Amino acid sequence: MTREEKNNVVNELTEYFTNYKFVYVTDSSAMSAVDTNNMRRVFFNKNIKMRVAKNTLIIKALEKSKVDFKELTDTLTGSTALLFAENAKDAAKAISEYRKKGAKPQLKGAYIDSDVFIGDDKLDVLSNLKSKEDLVADIVALLQSPAKNVISALQSGGGKIAGIVKTLSER
Fold first, then answer.
1. Are strands 115-118 and 106-112 parallel, antiparallel or unpaired?
2. All structural domains of the chain with their residue ranges
3. Residue 170 CA, distance from chain mean position
4. Residue 68 in 3-state DSSP?
5. Distance CA 102, CA 135 (A)
6. pLDDT at 80 over 90
7. pTM of the predicted model, to two decimals?
8. Cα–Cα distance between 13 and 96 in angstroms, integer?
9. Largest CA distance in the chain
10. How far, in whole angstroms, is CA 150 from its chain's centroid?
11. Which long-range contacts does 49-53 make (Cβ < 8 Å, 24+ apart)?
12. N or C: fewer beta carbons within 10 Å in the chain?
């Protein structure tokens, strides 16, 4: 690789590190070229960007992006493929889905909106993460539940309550 090509890779990775909050670090070295291409297709269809680069170039891009990936830099050994996603669990689900076919890319680590997950055993946890929108919807549903129960009780006993209110107002 020429110096210019290396600079282009570093600049591209720097842009991805600054623009994406969800970064997965995987090892696909045990996979054949056919398996790797099939995996790239799965990621492309899920709108996940996959980039393979030398670890030294990745480290330079991390330093240049000024995003704190300190714990994740320890995973940059051997062959490294980076996955950049717009949703926290999309890449984890895509990896899990692809593993059903047999070839296994190993998850080295993941950076999820300032939290770091290290190790392949965290894949299930990452697959089940709820998005911010899902959590807000759950909270709204919990807050609405008591109010709905009160309104429902008032509506179901409307005749009784109206009679009680009328009696109380006459006294």
1. antiparallel
2. 3-127, 132-170
3. 62
4. coil
5. 33
6. no
7. 0.75
8. 24
9. 94
10. 38
11. 49/16, 49/20, 49/83, 49/84, 49/85, 50/81, 50/82, 50/83, 50/84, 51/12, 51/13, 51/16, 51/81, 51/82, 51/84, 52/28, 52/79, 52/80, 52/81, 52/82, 53/9, 53/13, 53/80, 53/82
12. C
Rounded to 10°, the helix 3-19/55-65 angle is 50
Structure token pair of residue 52 = 């393979």
* pLDDT 10s digits, 50-68: 998 898 999 898 888 877 7
The SS3 assignment for 149 reads helix
* pLDDT the model gives residue 146: 72
Helix (H) or strand (E) holding 95: helix 90-99
Lookup result for tokens 């080295």: 108
CATH architecture, domain 3-127:
2-Layer Sandwich (3.30)
CA distance 168 to 156: 20
Evaluate whether 61 touches 23 at the Cβ level (below 8 Å): no
Beta carbons of 59 and 48 less than 8 angstroms apart: no
Bridge partners of residue 50, in order along the sequence: 83
